[in-house]
Amino acid sequence: MELSQRTGIPASRIYGVATFYEQFHLEPHGRHTVRCCRGTACHVRGGHGMIQAVSRMLGVSDGQTTEDMRFTFETVACLGTCFLAPVIMVDNDYYGNMTSTKVRDILERYK
Description:
Blueprint: H1 2-7, H2 11-20, E1 32-37, H3 40-44, H4 47-58, E2 71-76, E3 88-90, E4 93-95, H5 100-109
Parallel strand pairs: 1-2
Antiparallel strand pairs: 1-3, 3-4
């Protein structure tokens, strides 16, 4: 690893830090990150359907990036906005009380 050689820090230590923090990625990420909550409140209120809708609309599965590098899709344990369940987040914007129709409209804004 070039970073290890330049800094003198063992590659295993760099890898440990890079994989511990969610802000670091080992693979290229899309221009926009779409996160779907899979927490209890979202699950009870139809979150699984939102996850399927986003995956279908983007044509990728959890953890993948679209071929055009526009979107990376992730599911997360909780977005901390249970009162808005089900919730998705695009970049730093939260969208609550989601339906499949709303998901489509929101994703269109970021294209």
